UniProtKB/TrEMBL annotation:
It comes from the Bacteria. One of its GO terms (molecular function) is DNA binding. It comes from Methylomonas koyamae. This is HTH cro/C1-type domain-containing protein.
């Protein structure tokens, strides 16, 4: 897309999209914000959505696993609050270890132990 196309951006439907070419090229505002956060080195809300999908955890299970409230997890998932680095690292750790009991493991199991 040429630079002049960026200058043609307009607020779209109900202020929830950015439209460049009517009925052809638009982007939901939350997705545009997610891309901007990711490009700036932050942690976009789509990562939480994908983590929830990949792990199959419910909101309640995921919140408990991360040690946060269900409401805070929803804020992160919906992009209403920035995701702290520690929360994203906890998501990655949980996915790597996939604990099966209420107590947390003392270390990350070896690859062989994970696939046994």
């Amino acid at each position: 897309m040429e630079c002049k196309a960026y200058a043609q951006a307009k607020i779209g439907f109900a202020g929830r999209t950015v439209d460049w070419i009517e009925d052809e090229l638009d982007l939901a505002a939350d997705n545009l914000r997610n891309l901007a956060i990711e490009q700036a080195g932050g942690i976009g809300h789509e990562r939480i959505r994908l983590w929830l999908h990949d792990t199959g955890l419910t909101l309640e299970q995921a919140a408990e696993a991360l040690g946060i409230s269900r409401r805070m997890l929803i804020y992160y998932r919906d992009g209403e609050k920035p995701i702290p680095r520690a929360i994203w690292l906890a998501c990655l750790g949980w996915k790597a270890v996939r604990p099966t009991c209420p107590t947390l493991p003392q270390q990350i199991p070896s690859a062989a132990a994970l696939h046994a």
